[in-house]
Amino acid sequence: MTIERLRGELLALQAAMKPLEPDTADRAALGQQALDHALAYLDAIPGAPANNDWSDVFARRLLPEFTATGRDASDIFDYIGRCVEKPGFATTSPRFMAYIPGGGLFHSAIGDFLAAVSNKYSGFASASPGAVRLENACIAWLAEVVGYPADAAGTLTSGGSLANLTAIVAARDARDPDGGGAIYRTRFAHYCVDKALHIAGRGSAPRRIVDTDDRYRMSAKALDVLLARDRADGVKPWLVVASAGTVDTGAIDPLDEIADVCARHGAWLHVDGAYGGLFSLCAEGKALLGGIERADSVALDPHKTLFLPYGTGAVLIRDRRHLIDSFSASADYIRPLGESDVGPSPSDLSPELTRHFRALRLWLPLQLAGIDAFRAAQTEKLKLARYFHARLSAIDGFEALLPQLSVVAFRYVPPGGEDSDAFNERLQGELLREGRVMFSGTRIDGRYYLRCAILSFRTHVEHVDEAVDALVRAVTARPDD
Ligand SMILES: *Cc1c(COP(=O)(O)O)cnc(C)c1O
Fold this sequence. Notes:
alpha/beta, Aspartate Aminotransferase, domain 2, 2 domains, five-stranded mixed β-sheet, globular, binds pyridoxal-5'-phosphate
C-alpha cells in the first residue's frame, strides 16, 4: 500500500523532471540551435566592434530571472546574444588589443562541450585514466615547451592567478615552512602575486622591490645586492618572483642571470610567465626566454598565449616532489591509489578535487590544428608588435616603447605643451567609446601610456593597420574638440 503510493509519487516526479532530460530529438534540436547561434556569432566577429555599449544588460533584464516552468530556447539564445555576448569588451575581436587578449579557439569550445557531455572525472586516474593521461600529456608537453625535465610536475589551473598561488604554496612549504623568509620582485610584478602571498599566509613577509634597468627588467645585480644584504642581516632569502613578460611593457627579466643569483643564495625562483612564458614555443620567443628552464616553478596561461578561452592556466614545478608534498592528501572514502601508469592524479597536485576536465580544451586544438599553427601564430604576434611599433614611430608625435614580446606601450605627445598624461587618458577613452579598436591604458612610473597588446589569433596585419589609422584619426580630430 505505502509502496504503491510511493511508486505513484515517484512516477509523478519523474514526469515533472522531464525537462532536465531531453530525448534524442530534443537534444538534436537544442544542439543545432546552439550551434547555429555560435556560428552566427563567429561569422559576425570580423565586422563587429571591439567594445560595445552595455545599456541592454540592464534595460532588457529577464523578470523574473528564473521561471518555474522554463522559457523558450529561441528567446533565451536571443537574450544571450543581445545582453551577454554583445555588451562590453569583445575579447574575440581581432581589433581587441587591450589587456592581454585571449580570442578563444573554436576547437577548445568543442573540447569543453565534449568534456561536459561525458563529464569524465578528471581528478583521479582510477576514475578516468583516459582523461588523466591526457591531462598529464598536456602537462608534459608544456614542460617540454619551457625546457623542463620530463619528470617535472604540473597541473592545469583555472588561470594564471591560481597558477601563481599554487607555485607560491609549493615554494612556501619547500623553503619557508616556518615563515620569516623574504620575497623579491620588481614594481612590475603582477598584482596577483601579492594576492597569492596573502592567501598563502605570507602577506606580511618581508618584501623587497628590486630595481629595474632602462627597459623595465629586473636588475640581477641589484637582486644580488639585496639577497646578500638580507643574508648578512640574518634574513633568509625565500622567494624571487621574476616576470617572463610584464603586463605593462612585456618586459622579460634576465632569467638566466637571476637563476645564478638564486642558486648562489639558495632562494626559490618562481617565474610568472602567465603572459609571456608560452612564447617559448616559437623559436623567436625561446631565444628571449632563455633561463626559464632553470626556475623552480613557472606559471603559464594557455588562455593567453595559446589562445584558449578563459579558464586555463598551468603551473609547473621543476622538482615534482614539491607539488606532491604540498597538495597530495587522502581520505578514508577515497582509497589511496598511488600513481598508476597514466601518471599522478590531478587531485594530488592541486588544491582541487572535483574539477572541470580542462585538458580536453587544450589537447583538442593541439591535435586538430597541429603545433606548427600555434608556432606561426605566436611568431606572427611578435612581428605584428614590431610592425605596430615601426608604423607608430614613423608618425610625428607618437612615442612607442620597443616591444619585448607582443605588448607595445605608447603615448602621443601633443604639440604646444598640452599635458600629455591627460591627453592620452582622453585618447584612450575616446577610442573606447568609438569601440572599433580597443587599447588599454596604464601608468609607467607615473606617466600615462596606452597599451597595444597583440595576442588574439584573429589579429593580423590588416587589423594593426586599422589600429594605427584609428589612432591617427583620433589625434587629428583631437579628442576634446
Ligand atoms: C594575466 C596575468 C596574470 C594573472 O593571470 P589570470 O589568468 O588573469 O588569473 C598573472 N601574471 C601575468 C604576468 C599576467 O599577464
